[in-house]
Amino acid sequence: KSGFVAIIGRPNVGKSTLMNQVIGQKIAIMSDKPQTTRNKIHGVYTADNMQIVFLDTPGIHKRQSKLGDFMNMTALNTLREVEAVLFLVDAADGMGGGDRFIAEQLKDVKTPVILVLNKIDQIEPEALLPLIEQYSKLHEFAEIVPISAKLGNNVNTLLDQVKKYL
Length: 166
Ligand code: GDP
Ligand code: MG
Prior knowledge:
Layout: E1 2-8, H1 15-23, E2 41-47, E3 50-56, H2 66-81, E4 84-90, H3 97-105, E5 113-118, H4 128-136, E6 143-146, H5 155-163
Parallel strand pairs: 1-3, 1-4, 4-5, 5-6
Antiparallel strand pairs: 2-3
This protein binds guanosine-5'-diphosphate and magnesium ion.
């Protein structure tokens, strides 16, 4: 199996950290300028006769100039072409306007979206369920997976969930 997976989320939620954790090397950082690169392939994960191509999708997270609008359209089209979208959020920060803006744009995208609650190493276990309930109101997520990209907690579970959609 092989497929393309797009990673979206506002800045600093841990997109590069997750890719580093999955790919297992420090290659995901590269150029990370939002709005200037389009659909950069950040890494390819290969295991068990399966390949996942991770795309960082810049330009989805804020409305800016005319160029910004164009980038948003490009980003949206990318989201329509991939097998699954990983929507990363910062569980420690909680839900914010940036998350809502992204969710709004996902309204017209039929691709399965997996909500990834990152940085769970920074929250109390009791805080998880309320967060899930809150985010569930934003979009009908195909899956919801709490992880710590930094520590690697539950990242294998996330990959198992992704594989279901390839
Ligand atoms: P990006 O902008 O979405 O690519 O975010 P980065 O991957 O650059 O991460 C932003 C910051 O969050 C960095 O300082 C990371 O070390 C930190 N970070 C990422 N994932 C985790 C996590 O699971 N737990 C904690 N505590 N910090 C994290
Ligand atoms: Mg990054």
